[in-house]
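As a next step, we paired sequence with structure tokens, yielding the entry below.
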Amino acid sequence: MKTSDLSGFFLRSLFIMASLNFRRMQNLGFTYAISPLSGLRKESRENCVAFLLRHLEYFNTHPYLSGAVLGSTIRLEEEDTAAAAREAAVAKLKKSLMGPYAALGDSFFWGSLRPLAGVTAAILAYEGCIWAPFAFLLLFNPLHLWIRWKGFLEGYRQGWQGIVYIQSWDLPRRARYLRRGSLVILGLATVLLAEEIQTLSLDTLWLREGATIVVPAAVLISYYAVSRGLSPLLILYGMTAVCMVMTS
């Protein structure tokens, strides 16, 4: 298949969430991404309809890893085997990969990378840096776009073995590192907050003195919570709620 054709499939995969529905989730987006394949194979109208109906079945995985499933599916669809065997292999692949990929993607991208990028951008914004939104985009977008593109290519090149590329990233281990990085950045944020508290007027003396205890305690509690598997995002929401109550 030509590089231009592969690029077209990949660009279409970026819209997999555009038609999300509660009945079959991402099936419309996946079918839209793979639909040009029937045209490239110059199938009859009946075969084209059957092809689209097969891919309109339930499909749901993490959007950033959906390209890897799409690439592997295209490779299997191109194999010169009996139609029934090919259809069974494609259905098995999609059902086997979408669940694990969803869990990996949620933990890494939603639970680790996005909070890290968000906390960093929030601190920069608090410090008055006008480039804070761009810092978020720079930390978040390049990595997920690279994994999407390479996952798609490796899936197409290797078929079933495309999962090896996703495994090579060891996303659970990297997710733990990113969560620890979020804690380090939160620690820096607490230092900045403590400095701000020390500049408050005398009528908030109790808050200034309490900061010497509350800030280190918050860091330790956050570290313990993350080590026990609690999402850093929930910790951020909890800290925000506590700060709102204390300053109300």
The longest helix spans residues 83-126. The chain has two domains: 3-169, 173-247.
